[in-house]
Specification:
The complex is a heterodimer of chains A (about 575) and B (about 110). With about 575 residues, chain A is α/β, with parallel strands linked by helices. Helix content of chain A is about 50%, strand content about 15%. In chain A, the strands form two sheets. An eight-stranded mixed β-sheet of chain A has the order 1-8-7-3-4-5-6-2. In chain A, strands 9-10-11-12-13-14-15-16 form an eight-stranded parallel beta barrel, surrounded by five helices. In chain A, strand 12, helix 16 and strand 13 form a beta-alpha-beta unit. The two termini of chain A are about 25 Å apart. By secondary structure, chain B is α+β, with helices and mostly antiparallel strands. Chain B has one domain: Histidine-containing Protein, Chain: A. Chain B is built from three helices and four strands. Chain B has a four-stranded antiparallel β-sheet. The longest helix of chain B has 13 residues. Chain B is globular and about 35 Å long. The N terminus of chain B is likely disordered. The chains are: A alpha/beta (about 575), B alpha+beta (about 110). At the A-B interface, helix 2, helix 3, helix 4 and helix 15 of A face helix 1 and helix 2 of B.
């Protein structure tokens, strides 16, 4: 039994046989063939190319349906490369002149291509090496007939174990067969992580060298609740996890029934539970789980999912889609939070030494005003379809807020001149996600209509911990006394100023923190749709005086371990033990 | 109009051959989507189409080769066509490049 600790990107537990995806390491059985075999190898190559093209077309259409044509356009390039006359010529030369097998010719040609991409100066172009690898793998799979890689025609449940998952693969996963995912690398905010979370597949990433511990067909546990992956679990663990899965199943059914009930404490305090979304269509999932609105629409995914930034109309359509789904419920649109680990693929992008301390988020927008205003105009135009709020990320000083508002007024003027309709009274708020913003909160609440605490960044900047770095990730915790004291400060400042204060970081959806946040006076929790029922369950089983007592107690501890254990014990009293 | 020196002498009729210098104007350079637009358009012409960047000359119907040119914004390219519809091809392709491939942020 090997237990690895990683980063959970999607909760839930799964036990199944491993399906291990090799990274680049395809074994090529025959490198050279006798001359009389050459026509046969050429035919094999042609067939592999045709089969790959058919597959790409299917993938493209499916992706276009779910994420729009822009994202799907990536696969047009893949198809273009497969039909590339120069590539075909290179491959056939190797077959005919060097008597290479089709698979070896593919491997050699693509290795050379990868080298050329790796040597590129422009980082955005150099990143295309991932597409090249994707295309190569697809061809090799068709040539070598690796059945175990055929994710689209699985006959039994598996847990996908891989060094890394390419985005194309993730979008095509069949969640009835792929019951869990474990990868060696990957960041919490990667596209892969987001897709896994919205598919609801239990997944733990950043497991360092988990693939080395597992062979295909061996039993694996993915424990998204504890951020663990276990290779070859012992009998005891298997029994424990099997019964946990069973109990969770019962628990989930109970949660289903909660969807239509109000989020209200036993003593009648109403709490707003809102959804976090990345893509417009996810709004429906929030409604289905009983969300009263969208507390965080992360618009940057419209940008990074696509090889070119979406124009004003495309953005407008995306916002409109989400707003229309939500009806008259509030949709809080956060302006693009690019930079750090989410880049636009522009040609003038330069790597930064400290991207998380660099030109990211509102700083990036204020530096690229034209692009920012395109987004603001699109948001303003969408405002006529429902109730929206605009939220600026990573504000650290008043000047930034004023400049961002100025850009918003400019966008309003543009629309006025063009005679385009929009709402004027849209609430404008900020994310509080740095110690600076917490300390200056009193000043901010005078100029912002609402605030929302972004705990993921707040924790990172308070504790100076990068949680995507597996070497320090265990230090990343909201239970740190400094973090909960900062959160307390923000909530009470907002309450005194009588403005809305929400929290849209991950802990909003973690049952462990529900009592604490409730007790600190938080009234708006914004989280991924899947987490809503469980949080609601806790809210509905407690009273405000009790929650306040829990918060008071938690604030008295000196270490994160004490806070964490105390909150766990208090939460367990309200939920079945396997839920915490 | 700067032209490739190797083609300057052969512009007399029957003109089977045309070339034009263009500059990449779209923000993200010649990346996947514009490349496919360029290749799709090239494929509509019978002429042999090549793209030159400095000393590199690649097939205008090969998406991989064009990607490898690493043509970021501001890159100067020469579009060259040889064949019965050479000048139409060069005109159409130059127009596409100049339009920034109809992308935002040009």
């Amino acid at each position: 039994m090997e237990i690895s600790k990683g980063i959970s990107v999607s909760p839930g537990i799964a036990i199944a046989e491993a399906l291990v995806l090799d990274a680049e390491d395809y074994r090529i059985p025959t490198r050279y063939v006798p001359a009389e075999e050459v026509p046969h190898e050429i035919e094999l190559l042609d067939r592999a190319i045709s089969a790959s093209l058919v597959e790409l077309k299917e993938k493209r259409d499916r992706l276009a349906k779910n994420y729009g044509n822009d994202t799907a356009a990536i696969f047009d390039f893949h198809a273009g490369v497969l039909q590339d006359p120069k590539l075909k010529k290179d491959l056939e030369e190797l077959l005919v002149e060097k008597l290479c097998s089709a698979a070896y010719a593919v491997s050699r040609t693509f290795l050379a291509l990868q080298r050329r991409f790796n040597n590129m100066r422009d980082p955005v172009f150099a990143q295309r090496v991932r597409d090249i690898q994707d295309i190569e793998k697809r061809l090799l799979r068709h040539l070598l007939g690796e059945e175990r890689e055929d994710l689209e025609h699985l006959t039994k449940s598996v847990i996908l174990v891989a060094h890394d998952l390419p985005p194309s693969l993730c979008a095509g996963l069949d969640k009835t067969k792929v019951v869990g995912v474990a990868t060696d690398v990957g960041g919490l905010t990667s596209h892969t992580a987001i897709v896994l979370r919205s598919l609801g597949i239990p997944a733990v990433i950043g497991l360092s060298d988990f693939t080395r511990n597992v062979s295909g067909g061996e039993l694996v546990v993915v424990d998204g609740r504890r951020s663990l992956a276990i290779a070859n679990p012992d009998l005891d663990s298997i029994r424990r996890y099997e019964s946990e899965i069973q109990r969770l199943g019962v628990f989930t059914v109970e949660l289903e029934e909660l969807k239509s009930l109000p989020a209200e404490t036993l003593d009648g305090q109403a709490i707003q539970l809102l959804g976090n979304i990345e893509f417009p269509h996810e709004a429906q999932g929030c409604l289905d789980q009983g969300a009263e609105g969208i507390g965080l629409f992360r618009t940057e995914y419209l940008f990074i999912g696509s090889p070119t930034p979406p124009d004003e109309n495309e953005q407008y359509e995306a916002y409109k889609t989400a707003i229309k789904i939500m009806g008259d419920r509030t949709v809080t649109i956060r302006t693009m939070d690019l930079g750090a680990d989410k880049y636009l693929k522009t040609s003038d992008w330069e790597p930064e030494r400290n991207p998380f301390l660099g030109l990211r988020s509102i700083r990036y927008c204020l530096r690229n005003l034209d692009m920012f205003k395109v987004q603001l105009r699109a948001i303003l135009r969408s405002s006529v379809h429902g109730n929206i709020r605009i939220m600026f990320p990573l504000i650290i000083n008043l000047m930034e807020l004023r400049q961002a508002k100025m850009a918003l007024y400019d966008a309003m003027e543009d629309l006025e001149e063009m005679g385009v309709e929009f709402k004027r009274d849209i609430p404008v708020g900020i994310m509080v996600e740095t110690p600076a913003a917490v300390i200056l909160c009193k000043e901010f609440v005078r100029e912002a209509d609402f605030i929302s605490i972004g705990t993921n960044d707040l924790i990172q900047y308070t504790l100076a911990v990068d949680r995507s770095n597996e070497k320090v990730a265990p230090l990343f915790t909201a239970s740190h006394p400094a973090v909960i004291r900062l959160i307390k400060q923000v909530i009470s400042t907002a309450a005194k100023a009588d403005i809305d204060c929400g929290l849209c970081g991950e802990i909003a959806g973690e049952p462990l923190y529900t009592l604490l946040l409730l007790g600190l006076g938080l009234q708006q929790f914004s989280m991924p749709a899947v987490d809503i029922p469980e949080v609601k369950q806790i809210i509905r089983s407690t009273r405000m005086p009790h929650a306040r007592k829990v918060a008071r107690e938690a604030l008295r501890f000196e270490t994160d371990r004490q806070v964490h254990n105390y909150l766990r014990d208090e939460t367990r009293k309200l939920l079945p033990p396997e839920a915490v | 109009m700067p032209e490739s020196p190797s083609f300057t002498e052969s512009t007399q009729p029957p003109s089977s051959h045309a070339s034009r210098a263009v500059t990449i104007v779209n923000e993200h350079g010649l990346h996947a989507r514009p490349i496919m637009q360029l290749v799709d358009l090239s494929n509509r012409f019978q002429s042999r189409i090549t793209v030159r960047k400095g000393e590199q000359i690649v097939d205008g119907k090969s998406p991989m080769e064009i990607m490898l040119l690493e043509a970021v914004r501001g890159t100067e390219l020469v579009l060259i066509a040889e064949g019965p519809d050479a000048s139409e091809a060069v005109n159409a392709l130059a127009k596409l490049v100049a339009s920034g491939f109809n992308e935002e942020g040009v």
